[in-house]
Write a structure and sequence with these properties.
four-stranded antiparallel β-sheet, N-reg_PII_CS, elongated, 6 strands, phosphoprotein, Nitrogen regulatory protein P-II, alpha+beta, N-reg_PII, two-stranded antiparallel ribbon
């Protein structure tokens, strides 16, 4: 099992959710996060004063999948989150040792 963690623009969340749902991949966790990568923030003007925004608001989308679903899910998230501009985000893949469904006690891929 794998845990896919994608950092995406907030405006792309619905596209990512719809792409995954269309392929029968359900269950995701979304967290509001802030950070920066190569773009290192930006400056904005508010009421005539310029100020630096060092941490850009993003969303972290986490999806647990089986190993055979991984490449398809990476492709779906990449295509749905891509705008072609700087700050589209990143995808991280982590090994998922175990998963337990609390209600039934199912473990492993059955719990996904």
């Amino acid at each position: 099992m794998k845990l896919l963690a994608a950092i995406i623009k907030p405006s792309r969340l619905d596209a990512v959710r719809n792409a995954l749902s269309a392929k029968d991949i359900h269950g995701m966790t979304v967290t509001e996060v802030r950070g920066y990568g190569r773009q290192k923030g930006h400056t904005e003007i508010y009421r005539g004063a310029e100020y630096a925004v060092n941490f850009i608001p993003k969303l972290k989308v986490e999806v647990a999948v089986t190993a055979d679903q991984l490449s398809e899910v990476i492709d779906l998230v990449s295509e749905a989150a891509r705008s072609g501009r700087i700050g589209d985000g990143k995808i991280f893949v982590l090994d998922l040792e175990d998963a337990i469904r609390i209600r039934t006690g199912e473990r492993g891929t059955e719990a996904l």
